[in-house]
From TrEMBL:
Specifically dimethylates two adjacent adenosines (A1518 and A1519) in the loop of a conserved hairpin near the 3'-end of 16S rRNA in the 30S particle. May play a critical role in biogenesis of 30S subunits. It comes from Streptomyces coeruleofuscus. The lineage of its organism: Bacteria, Bacillati, Actinomycetota, Actinomycetes, Kitasatosporales. PANTHER family: DIMETHYLADENOSINE TRANSFERASE, DIMETHYLADENOSINE TRANSFERASE-RELATED. It is found in: Cytoplasm. Keywords: Cytoplasm, Methyltransferase, RNA-binding, rRNA processing, S-adenosyl-L-methionine, Transferase. S-adenosyl-L-methionine binds at residues 33, 35, 60, 81, 111, 129. Residues 40-214 form the Ribosomal RNA adenine methylase transferase N-terminal domain. Transmembrane segments: none annotated. This is Ribosomal RNA small subunit methyltransferase A.
Amino acid sequence: MTSPAPDALLGPADVRELATALGVRPTKQRGQNFVIDANTVRRIVRTAQVHPDDVVVEVGPGLGSLTLALLEVADRVTAVEIDDVLAAALPATITARMPGRADRFALVHSDAMHVTELPGPAPTALVANLPYNVAVPVLLHMLEAFPSIERTLVMVQSEVADRLAAPPGSKVYGVPSVKANWYAEVKRAGAIGRNVFWPAPNVDSGLVSLVRRTEPLKTTASRREVFAVVDAAFAQRRKTLRAALAGWAGSAAAAEAALVAAGVSPQARGESLTVEEFARIAEHKQNQPQEEESA
């Protein structure tokens, strides 16, 4: 394996120079804040526990700061980029700065929400700096679409990190917390300062680690069925589950019957339930004509 040059990673001047050459102005619309600190991207790779036989998928590589750090360690890296200009430029950046690893890199020019297959071997890890406005749907989509992903580390807005890693009973526990926990054990894995980005965001960032469950949740309900209960419970989170799930079950009485059968108090609220309890409720929904639930 060819070792990359010590200065292969992008520093502040490199990032600005690349952006100027490409005519790129970071946009709020796509949540673009480029990492300009080599120590930070190497820290992310270490925290993600990327090792030499990993096949890593990265969403939103931007100018390539994290991509290059991943290529230093992983066997292969596939980057998914939606931006036309950034997608066109990234392969040349990789070839120029890390020529010995360029054959280990692949680019998918697409919206990550629409990606259902990737070139090369199945990914074993997902590492990404996700824009806050699409972080949760992109994360959940990738975990669903690629069950081979064992470990995930995402950098997201600090508040999003808190929500993803929140335990039952927490004020910020909600839909993202439960759905992420369907797939993985989730925890906060550190904080990232604002000064490592260009432009510096006006929010703090955090790292979230997700280690996929070695065995899927034991339930006869499908993911779609469980997620429908979760969505209904938190759509009216201040209400008791008996009331909040009335629409989902067909009536408040039917909701109460499902809750009692699942061993959950009808007076409880969604924020107190584990993903396992939501699954039990889904299992006890009475069969009746209904509109298709959206997950």
